[in-house]
Amino acid sequence: MVARREIGSGKPRLFEFEQVGRLPTVRDNVAIASRRLEVGDRLMFEGRELVLDSTILEGHRFAVRAIFKGELLLSWGLPFGRATRDIGAGGYICNAGMLEALADRSLDAVLPASPNFNGIS
After folding, report:
1. Cα separation of 66 and 99, whole Å?
2. pTM greater than the 0.85 cutoff
3. E strand or H helix at 97, and its extent?
4. What is the Cα–Cα distance from 12 to 110, expressed in whole angstroms?
5. Per-residue pLDDT tens for 29-82?
């Protein structure tokens, strides 16, 4: 059993991936958060530990493997973007439009300072 913390206690939590994320296909390099996760939370994924670099909002994506600059981002087995810089496992997947929209909200969250992918056409 993996230890968990109460919301608001400020200590990083450790989760089994299946408790908090979905990887629609085995080809995907990004997962979808099934609940809000906090910066520093750790996830056990395929026998290794991922540490989240930002708050990951429910329904948002994070890297489950290292993604290198220029590499395609895959979700549901389909490419939806291209990395504009290296993204480490546990990195929040965000583009400029998303960060701009989130900046307009009063969120108590640690978000990346800059985007890490562009959409593809």
Report:
1. 21
2. yes
3. helix 96-103
4. 13
5. 999 999 999 999 999 999 999 999 999 999 999 999 999 999 999 999 999 999
How far, in Å, CA of 45 to CA of 37, rounded? Answer: 15
DSSP string of 3-70? ----TTS-S--EEEHHHHEE-SSTT-SEEEESS-B-TT-EEEETTEEEE-SS-B-TT-EEESS-B-TT
Task: Say how far apart CA 119 and CA 83 lie, in whole Å.
Answer: 9
Residue 71 is classified by DSSP as P
Residue type, 26: V
Q: Quick check: 92 and 56 in contact, CB under 8 A?
A: yes
How far apart CA 110 and CA 118 sit, in angstroms, is: 21
